[in-house]
Amino acid sequence: MPDSRFAQFGIYASILLASYAFYKLYITPYYLSSIRHLPGPPRKSIILGNLPEIVAAEPGILQKEWLDKYGGYARYHFMFGVSRLLLSDVKAVNHILLSNPYSYPKPNALRGELAKILGKGLLFAEGDDHKRQRKIMTPAFTWPHVRELTPVFQAKARIMLSQWLDAVATEAESAEPKGYAIFDVSLGLNRCTLDVIGKAGLGYEFGSLENDDNALAKSFQSMTKSLGEPSVLSFAMMFVVRALPFLALIPNKRVEVMRESMRIRARESRKIFDEKKKVEQERMEKSDSSVKGARDLMSLLVRSNLDSSLKARDRMDDDEVMSQMTTFLLAGQETTSTAATWTLLRLAQNPEIQTRLRAEIVEAQAEAERQGLAEIEPETLEKLPYLDAICKEIMRFDSPVSGTIRGVAKEDHIPVSTPYRLPNGEMTDTIHVMPGQSIFMSIYTINRNETIWGPDASKFNPDRWFNLPESVADGTKGFLWAHQLSFLSGSRACIGWRFAVLELKAIISVAIQHCSFAERDEGGTEIYARSFLVSKPLVRGEAKAGTQLPLRVSRVQKAQ
């Protein structure tokens, strides 16, 4: 009799599970989803949707193919019957990012991951919490404050440059000198930008260019490595753990690395924060306006948060302030080092562009020295026309982030530029979305849209910035910087964009004066991108080596 009951229970459970699976995998996407009428690619897998082909492709490429085929909006299938809205229509994007940023928060699953990695800082916060945090942080990222940090950018870049030139000199002393050294430039750039954000962002010396012994630096590097490359399995685990939270308690290598990294970061961040808070409180008690406080971003943030004019309810608590430290590290280091890495690749692939840029930088440096200055001043660095064009083109062509994801907090109708026909024959110029819907906005597609940028949109061409077609201004209204979406737009735009752009210019200007870069292999090295939080380069056929950019590096002779 008991066996019969167990058998019955098994049958009922199987029927219930099969019914739920049928509902989620078939009924929901094809009959209940508010975006079911939109065009899009066919589902490749009943359970995994289009995810396997997305993961297999380079960041942004597949989404651009779909959007080019179906228009500025499409529907594709994510895992477990989830339909995701895909957008590159600028009218729709502006509706989300500019007009209604807090009605389209990051999805809960993504916010949960961000909280684990970064804490409850600016990238995690939504709504009133985000407004409150951003208001306190904004003064630290104004142009006058960022300009003061330029010497830090240049000093760290000089240390990196010295190491590169030492490598070239060592090769020159070998038995069969080639006149150049081959090494992975991304390694030096990663360490340089980490040291920059340490000093300029936290007022803290990582010293990663000189050694690898700093506990906080090592914990941060371990964390980013443990995140790894997105895979079908990693996405599946995110879904499963969200549904069954107790699974997160099961030990595994990634979780252990993350926990240890978080423990070290919490300890070291607390030390840095407590010291800064103590210094600022003592300075404010003295009420001596002639005594200037430290100018790093964290000191400015702590100072702003302690301002007596700020109401208690508007202040950040200690955990929120410390969460900004991790946010600074991740957002400030990963994105800039990646942009600088892609810049050196494009210069290596285009020697005539590299030569022209070097001439501009060398002349600017000579002018600075004639004025008795050791480095190019930030105002000059910001306005050098060809350097500016190259940095804008890199962020357009090789944006470190290929897209951004949002959820839907309340029912809405998103306006689109091109009307489409509903199954009942009616035409509409809006997309109906319901709470729980996820939306992927393709930065890659917008930045390479031929309708906006012209027929050479998929070509690296800095000269386009000296004669932009009218379609660029018309097609990118509302965008934050340089007619592109790389720093997003609206109240959720990247708060540190000035910092990132000036740091990129400083690093490239220092490196290009004294180093010449060429592709590693005579016939060119095949480089492709994979997403590791940001889009990083790998060498085709050398995936086991991980992300890298090996280049031929030689010393620029004075005659040049």
Portion in beta strands = 5-15%
Strand order of the largest sheet: 1-2-7-4
Unreliable stretches: none
Which descriptor suits the 3D outline?
Answer: globular
Protein name: Cytochrome P450
Keywords: Heme, Iron, Membrane, Metal-binding, Oxidoreductase, Transmembrane, Transmembrane helix
Cofactor: heme
GO molecular function: heme binding; iron ion binding; monooxygenase activity; oxidoreductase activity, acting on paired donors, with incorporation or reduction of molecular oxygen
Helix-strand layout with pairing:
Elements: H1 2-32, H2 51-56, H3 61-70, E1 73-77, E2 83-87, H4 90-99, H5 108-118, H6 127-137, H7 143-148, H8 150-172, E3 181-184, H9 185-202, H10 215-227, H11 232-243, H12 253-286, H13 297-305, H14 318-349, H15 351-370, H16 378-383, H17 385-397, E4 403-407, E5 412-421, E6 427-433, E7 438-442, H18 443-447, H19 450-453, H20 470-475, H21 497-514, E8 515-519, E9 527-532, E10 534-539, E11 550-555
Parallel strand pairs: 2-7
Antiparallel strand pairs: 1-2, 3-11, 4-7, 5-6, 8-11, 9-10
Helix pairs in contact: 8-9, 8-21, 9-14, 10-12, 12-13, 12-14, 14-17, 14-21, 15-21
Descriptive terms for the model:
560 residues, alpha+beta, Cytochrome p450, 4-stranded mixed sheet, heme binding, Cytochrome_P450_monoxygenase, oxidoreductase activity, acting on paired donors, with incorporation or reduction of molecular oxygen
